[in-house]
Give the backbone structure.
Amino acid sequence: QVQLVESGGGLVQTGGSLRLSCAASGRTFSSYVMGWFRQAPGKEREFVAAIRSSGSSTKYADSVKGRFTISRDNGKNTVYLQMNSLKPEDTGVYYCAADDSPWYSGRYYNWREYDYWGHGTQVTVSS
């Protein structure tokens, strides 16, 4: 069992930055692929970024590539999402999630594959 709690959301102007954190409980955090997803009003939940259990590999949605960075600290049971050059279209509720599928399965893009979810943190980017 893994419990996830996100923090760091807020209101920021276009071009600004935010750093999201996701703190996990449980001793097996380091064995999970971790992902960030977001959901805007009236839209489906979409993949943002994922990181391998060891932290050695990452994947990003094309819409955030070059602006967002996912990282993790297994000693602190925490995964981060550094968001720079924010745009209004980045607005939404951001969720972190944990997946016990192997990284090589490539399933980290699909939110339905994830086993545990946080409650989300709101990010609003004003124009």
Summary: The longest strand covers residues 92-99.
